[in-house]
Amino acid sequence: MRLLHTSDWHLGRSFHREGMLTHQAAYVDHLVEVVRAEQVDVVLVAGDVYDRALPPVDAVRLADEALVRLAAEGVTVVVSSGNHDSAQRLGFSARLIEAAGVHLRTDLARVGEPVLLEDRHGPVAVHPLPYLDPYAVAGAWSLDERSHAAALGAAMSRVRADLDARPGVRSVVTAHAFVAGAQPSDSERDISVGGVERVPRPVFDGITYAALGHLHGPHVLDDHLRYSGSPLAYSFSETDQVKGSWLVDLDAGGLASATFVPAPVPRPLARLRGDLETLLGDPALAEHEGSWLEVALTDVRRPEQAMERLRERFPHTLLLSFDAVRPALGAPPASRTHARTDHDVAWEFMADLGPDEPTDAERRLLWRAVDACCDDATADPNAEASGPAEEGD
Predict the structure, then answer these.
(1) Which of 35, 152, 315, 375 could form a disulfide with 40 if both were Cys (CB 3.0 to 4.6 A apart)?
(2) Helices (H), the chain
(3) Residue 137 has what pLDDT?
(4) End-to-end alpha-carbon separation of the chain, Å?
(5) What is the pLDDT of residue 370?
(6) Claim to verify: residue 258 and residue 303 sit in the same structural domain
């Protein structure tokens, strides 16, 4: 039996206000092509079909199209809900839809009830686990502890009780959780309870294959325990990740192989750092002119219209920060502390921050700003020592 493990589609999500729906539709095209080319039998979607509980209409339409196209290929589709999904909305009409070979599992009451499949080697029991909110599960199942480990442990007890009644059956579990040993990205929603969110790996011991969702980077925690990650990058922390899905083969003995299938990259991500003129003039950066960019400028003096100038060459620049190395501002020598006015202190501070001393216009503006902060400009006993600011801009 051949499985295709995917998760965390997050349909309807934007990337720093850039719409992602066309890129997500391209992934659905890729998914259907892989199913067809690799003769996949079962598609597993381990949660977070949508990005939020009330998804936009276009996202719902794309999800519907994806499920219809997969069903038309004759494959069994098993979908469980994630922490971003509304379990009730995603699971609407689940029992009716099962007639088409699409199994939507979002209800706690069905945990422990498998999707039973069969190949020439015998039966395979697929147990899709929806996202298990510790507070909801503790109340529904009368647990003493409210934690992700307790909730998933209780769910797996129900799974094992079912498997004990099916000796020799090969088992597949989908779960949406943070399993110990994996590394998160910036784009996952925090699901910690009391600062604890990780689930121990032994929870999945004895399972032929565990298809995990929630973390957006692909991970191999054990041969039988893997995250597919999200099909697209949803934060710049995922710049270097290769996105895709796992193609998993089961034979008579259990897990035979797992091969990573990279997903298409509609628009790559990159992080650039340097001064503005170098970034605008470096021919080696031409490869990033079509990328979504996060740029950190190192200019000591902030360039004017930096974002506008960057976007002339790199039109998809999304994030801009300034990260110049500033001199350490220690206490001034004793010779500099005698008879220094407020104007002197402000002037020296500006001079320390920039490569050049403030201009005359900046000096006059600074002088007026300092005076405006005082109820009585003559209250400074050293004001006469510095002399009045020049008139004008």
Answers:
(1) 35
(2) 21-37, 57-72, 87-90, 94-97, 134-141, 148-164, 276-281, 306-313, 334-337, 342-353, 360-372, 383-386
(3) 94
(4) 78
(5) 83
(6) no
What pLDDT, on a 0 to 100 scale, did the predictor assign at position 387?
46
Instruction: For the chain of 393 residues, list the mean pLDDT of each consecutive stretch of 10.
Output: 98 94 98 98 98 96 97 97 95 93 96 97 97 94 93 97 96 96 78 68 96 96 97 95 98 97 96 97 97 96 94 97 71 55 75 67 82 65 48 49
Four-residue CA torsion sign, 273, 279, 282, 284: positive
- At which residue do the structure tokens 């590394």 appear? 183
For residues 119 and 171, state if they share a domain: yes
pLDDT at 352: 63
Q: Quick one: 254 and 275 in the same domain?
A: no
- Residues 6 or more apart in contact with residue 148 via CB below 8 angstroms: 132, 134, 177, 178, 191, 193, 196, 197, 198, 199
- Non-local (6+) Cβ contacts of 324 within 8 A are 297, 298, 299, 300
Residue 51 buriedness (CB in 10 A; 0-12 / 13-18 / 19+): buried
Q: Domains in the chain: how many in total? A: 3
- Asked if 227 and 244 count as a contact pair (C-beta separation under 8 A), the reply is no
Name which of 199, 108, 188 is nearest 145 in CA terms: 199
For residue 257, list its beta bridge partners: 249
Q: Do 32 and 95 share a domain, yes or no? A: yes
Range of the domain at 371: 334-386
149 with 203, same domain: the answer is: yes
- What pLDDT does 355 receive? 59
Encoding tokens for residue 94? 């689940």
* Cβ atoms of 49 and 11 closer than 8 Å: yes
> What burial letters (b/e) apply to 80-108, b meaning 16+ CB within 10 Å?
bbbbbbebeebbeebeebeeebbbbbbeb
CATH of the domain at 124: 3.60.21.10
In a domain, 393, yes or no: no
Scan for tokens 């010779």, then name that residue. Answer: 335
Q: How many C-beta atoms lie closer than 10 Å to residue 321's C-beta? A: 9
